[in-house]
Structure prediction request, 124 residues.
Amino acid sequence: MFERYTEQARRVIFCARYEASQFGAPEIDTEHLLLGLVREERLVGNLWLPRAQPEIIRGRVESWLPRHKSISTSVDLPLTAASQHVLHCAMVEADRLNSKPIGIRTPASGIDSGRGMSNFQAFA
Prediction:
């Protein structure tokens, strides 16, 4: 499923999975993808969120995400329908741009169009 994704984009998804497990979520939701992007963005120099401060984004997301007992990172967590939609939008955008690889900027555009992220505009 992730063959077309660049290493950085795969790390975003990996970080999202980690975030979901830390929140005790049974699935990887769009908010976890955003947290994964924020985490990866710190490593690549804020390519996509140049004006946003990662700590503010994290704080806002944490304020509305429920926290449960964390789940082991060895447990496989599925993507929610909304997260699948985000990744599909990223693939469609890459295809529109005639780009075979799906990079870190492409998943970000998918998050922007993702369902369930109505609060996302507060960060842009």
Q: What stands out?
A: The chain has one domain: 7-117. The radius of gyration is 14 Å. The domain at 7-117 is CATH 1.10.1780.10 (Double Clp-N motif).
